[in-house]
Specification:
heterodimer, A: 349 residues, ABC transporter involved in vitamin B12 uptake, BtuC, two-stranded antiparallel ribbon, 14 helices, 2 strands, 76% helix, globular, B: 260 residues, alpha/beta, Rossmann fold, 2 domains, 11 strands, binds adenosine-5'-triphosphate, binds magnesium ion
Chain lengths: 349, 260
């Protein structure tokens, strides 16, 4: 019953997002034909904004798996994303690989980073792990900007002129790109749902709750954290690859602490450890950024900060977390009212 | 090797700086017995337990389980040997449901820990076993509540259930009644006795409740300032002059422990 309802909401959201480009075109008075042909207009513009949201959501959900589910606090998560983006960009541009091979390479890059992070897992915990991962990401950030790699990575400007596969060119095949990004996000989400309900994922939650107890029950917690890191690493790297395909430039700031903090903010807004919170949070985060920018220009980042603080204060469990808690309360209140009403009703004939 | 001995410590020692918390303790725990360790606060009982299960690394000495040296075995291997350990401070998964706490304990020794694409409920055996255990410890009604919302006494029972779930041969219980309300202590005692009698498990028990210790134990070891002061059957210990003088001489026994 609960599963049905969960999927009903997901289904409704998916249907809405599929219909969305068409709805905007209709509202805008643009003909569907023109919209499908990729002519510019509101529909194309909002498709772009949503693509950015989908990519952010993929990045954030991979962070939620590490932090929200497994309890691993990483300050270097942006590196997972950035390495995916640079790998895809360099493979397409310098190595001239076709897209499928590029994606295989990206997946390998994701696994390799997870293995790198896992080296320190047995030795450091909590905030120390966060700082070590920040160290890894900072090294990557510096290396990728270095002069020596200029020809490959484009120095501190970033990687430009990545050849886009004809079928996925965001300039004139934006609708296709939109559906690909949407499909990838939904697939990742469904896979993550399954993962957290798998025996492996349940142990990851147990590790977040009390790693020592998990060990004493007989779980070699290292392997479970490694599994979470690998799944998260692959996902974030794929998100990065999508970013490289979509954006005109892959900037080295994508490996910065600020980028990791974005993922953290998104899941705080959406609800830590809820998975769907990453999707809702990514939308809230990007839309807030966009509209506040539009309304306030320069001072928008200050207002954005205030809004984040307010959100965390008033929705301490994030949008999804608070909603889940309230839902139970509301249901209880409803049931109480129902009972009171049926008790007050005269019994018998 | 004495086949009757399941767990043995050989001159086990732990120093914290200048403090010798466990001072060359050698004891033998015989199969299918309830063996209790008693002693005043700070005697080193918990530290001794921690040495046995490698939660604390010993300064010197060895731990032998069924003839095998397990002194520096990684924590997660302990359960696989058939040893279940409860802690003086309740050690559970607070935000998971009571059922999930026990189900995870059932899952731990199974072969499907790395099945990423199956729903955990696909593995029926774990949940059925967890249901049995919850019945055994009397928590069936609370199965779907988060563990942290249980009253303290029920949390103690839950932890006991978690270590019983994989059906270990040996239980190490560190003050299972600690902090329990006086009126529920007998339930816990009955539970331990019943577990011992029905499934012939070896139990090593640290307990302050003298009434419980005297009635339940086959053998008692008295610790004092990190060392073994005396060892024997309950009646021998009750008659032992050193223990009596230690007891009466005000070494700080918590005599009959109820609320604390
Ligand atoms: N990690 C530690 N570092 C330093 N000293 C410690 C540590 N753990 C225990 N001790 C000290 O070792 C001694 C033995 O402590 P332990 O907890 O083993 O006693 P206990 O017999 O279990 O007492 P209680 O009845 O209060 O549980 C105490 O003096 C304690 O302060
Ligand atoms: Mg103790």
């Amino acid at each position: 019953m609960k599963i049905l309802r969960d999927h009903a909401i997901l289904g409704a959201v998916a249907v809405f997002l599929i219909a969305f480009p068409f709805l905007i075109a209709l509202l805008d008075g643009q003909s569907i034909g023109a919209m499908l042909a990729g002519q510019s207009g509101n529909s194309k513009f909002y498709q772009g904004l949503l693509i950015e949201i989908f990519i952010l959501a993929i990045f954030a959900i991979s962070y939620d798996l590490l932090f929200g589910i497994t309890g691993l606090l990483s300050f270097g998560h942006a590196m997972f994303f950035s390495v995916g983006a640079y790998t895809a960009g360099i493979a397409l541009k310098s190595l001239k690989l076709p897209l499928p091979e590029t994606l295989v390479l990206v997946v390998f890059a994701g696994v390799a980073q997870a293995l790198l992070f896992s080296i320190v897992l047995p030795r450091v915990k909590g905030i120390t792990f966060a700082l070590v991962t920040l160290g890894f990401a900072s090294v990557f950030h510096i290396v990728i900007m270095s002069h020596e790699l200029n020809d490959w990575a484009g120095g501190d400007v970033g990687l430009q002129n990545i050849p886009k596969p004809a079928l996925l060119d965001p300039a004139n095949q934006r609708l296709t790109f939109y559906f690909v990004a949407l499909a990838l996000m939904l697939l990742v989400y469904l896979f993550y749902r399954r993962f957290v309900d798998s025996p492996t994922g349940r142990v990851c939650s147990a590790i977040r709750e009390n790693e020592h107890r998990a060990q004493m029950l007989g779980f070699n917690t290292f392997y479970f954290k490694l599994a979470a890191l690998i799944v998260s690493g692959i996902t974030a790297a794929l998100g990065g690859a999508l970013h490289a395909l979509y954006q005109p430039i892959v900037s080295p700031t994508s490996a910065s602490l600020g980028y990791t903090v974005n993922a953290l903010l998104i899941i705080l807004i959406g609800g830590v450890g809820t998975l769907s919170g990453a999707l809702v949070g990514a939308a809230a985060f990007r839309l807030l950024q966009f509209y506040l920018d539009k309304l306030f220009g320069e001072s928008s980042s200050f207002i954005l900060g205030v809004v984040y603080v307010a959100l965390v204060l008033f929705l301490p469990y994030g949008i999804i977390g608070t909603w889940r808690a309230k839902k139970l309360e509301w249901r209880a209140a409803w049931q109480a009212r129902w009972r009171a009403w049926s008790a007050a009703r005269p019994r018998g004939k | 090797m004495d086949n009757n001995v399941i767990l043995e410590s050989e001159r086990l020692r732990k120093e914290f700086g200048a403090l010798v918390a466990v001072n060359d303790v050698s004891i033998k725990i015989r199969r299918n017995t309830i063996h209790s360790i008693i002693g005043p606060n700070g005697a080193g009982k918990t530290t001794f337990f921690n040495l046995l299960t490698n939660n604390v690394e010993p300064t010197a000495g060895r731990v032998i389980y069924k003839g095998r040296d397990i002194t520096r075995l990684p924590l997660h291997r302990i359960a696989h040997l058939g040893i279940g350990r409860s802690f003086q401070i309740t050690n559970i998964f607070p935000n998971l449901t009571v059922l999930e706490n026990v189900r995870l304990a059932c899952q731990s020794l199974g072969k499907h820990n790395f099945r990423l694409f199956n729903h955990y409920q696909h593995f029926r055996g774990d949940e059925e076993r967890a249901g049995q255990v919850l019945r055994q410890v009397g928590l069936t009604e609370r199965a779907l509540t988060p563990a942290r919302t249980l009253p303290h006494g029920d949390q103690r029972k839950l932890e006991l259930g978690m270590i019983l779930a994989p059906d270990p041969e040996m239980l190490l219980l560190d003050e299972p009644t600690a902090g329990m309300a006086a009126e529920v202590v007998p339930e816990m005692i009955d539970l331990i006795r019943q577990i011992h009698q029905t499934s012939h498990k070896t139990v090593l028990l640290v307990e302050h409740n003298m009434g419980l210790v005297m009635s339940i134990s086959d053998c008692i070891t008295v610790m004092h300032q990190g060392a073994v002061l005396a060892e024997g059957t309950p009646s021998e210990i009750a008659a032992n002059k050193t223990v009596q003088s230690a007891y009466l001489g005000g070494l700080g026994w918590r005599v009959v422990d109820s609320g604390q």
